[in-house]
Amino acid sequence: MILVGTSGWQYRDWRGRFYPQQLPQRLWLEHFAAGFATVEVNNAFYRLPERETFAAWRARTPADFCVAVKMSRYLTHIKRLRDPDEPVARFLGRATALGDRLGPVLLQLPPNLRADVDALDATLRLFPAEVRVAVEPRHPSWWTDATRAVLERRRAALVWADRLGRPVAPRWRTTDFGYLRLHEGRARPWPRYGRAALTSWVRRLTDAFGEDEPAYVYFHNDPGGAAIVDAVAFAALARAAGHPVSRVPTPAEADTSGD
């Protein structure tokens, strides 16, 4: 199953595009979850919500909805993976209020953080087996056999990432689920993705993962609602190729041209 969504749902320029002009912002999550089956929560990276907020998201979304949560930058960017016990415990103490809505936890590492496989291993071992973890290193020193071995041993996914239509990380399969982030396309209007780029990513994912293995796909190119349009287009291409895909809005519902 390919689960397709966007990275975040609260973007002001989506009002009057994806969200009806008169819909209060407090109801945007319900509107989003009626169209998509998953979302990646980015704001937890900047400010970790209280447990009550995660519980409220669970109560406001359908039973089949899945929330991927980006790990607090306190661990990844301030502590730089050092002394991970307290940050991971605090994160899990709050995010697990999502219950069965909790999807993968995303660890996005700073672009200037050089490889430290021991620190990564010490961090990953703190997550219980039932919590999926995806890791997005961004310094080239991480692309080694030692990094891959840690991810495989801890059953963590290496995040596949795209910028300007090109992979920015190795396409290693390190566990039984995939995680793809699409940051910026080359098509017009910016930052949209073109059909060829989306088709290539559908093929790469489905070549690597079987239909009984989830692959999470999040579009992070939010300006102008590009993420919504591209997510719907990606899902349509995957379905046309015969692959099971989570629900997405109809093309008409995803029309972000505005009034």
TrEMBL record:
Pfam families associated with the record: DUF72 (PF01904)
InterPro entries: DUF72 (IPR002763), UPF0759_sf (IPR036520)
This protein's name: DUF72 domain-containing protein
Organism: Micromonospora zamorensis
Lineage: Bacteria, Bacillati, Actinomycetota, Actinomycetes, Micromonosporales
